[in-house]
Amino acid sequence: GLQVQAKDGSWLDVPCDFGNLIVNIGDMLQEASGHYFPSTTHRVVNPDGADMTKSRISLPLFLHPRPDVVLSERHTAGSYLQERLRELGVI
Q1: Which contiguous run of DSSP H or E holds residue 77?
Q2: Which of 26, 43, 69, 79 has its CA 20 to 30 A from that of 34?
Q3: Rounded CA gap, 1 and 71, in Å?
Q4: b/e per residue, 48-73, with b = 16+ CB within 10 A?
Q5: Structural domain containing residue 8
Q6: Tens of pLDDT along 35-66?
Q7: Model-wide pTM > 0.85
Q8: Please, is 28 exposed, middle or buried when counting C-beta atoms within 10 Å of its C-beta (0-12, 13-18, 19+)?
């Protein structure tokens, strides 16, 4: 199932209860919200026990604003993307 990483580095299971809707926030929305909405490091692992038989639906949706959109005093969407790509060693 879905797990999120806590500040201490441990992994926490996200409950898979009927009717739940989980929204993972990305880095750009974190920047645009002044860090009000934190970006979460997350992963998906095969669950154990009774959770192994529960169904989940995953619907990823990735949105990216135009490069000139202002995210914060420090960044436009374009400058933020360039910084992140440099940090990841992509460019």
Answers
A1: helix 77-87
A2: 43
A3: 32
A4: eeeeeeeeeeeeeeeeebeeeeebee
A5: 2-57+64-87
A6: 999 999 999 998 888 878 877 788 888 889 99
A7: no
A8: buried
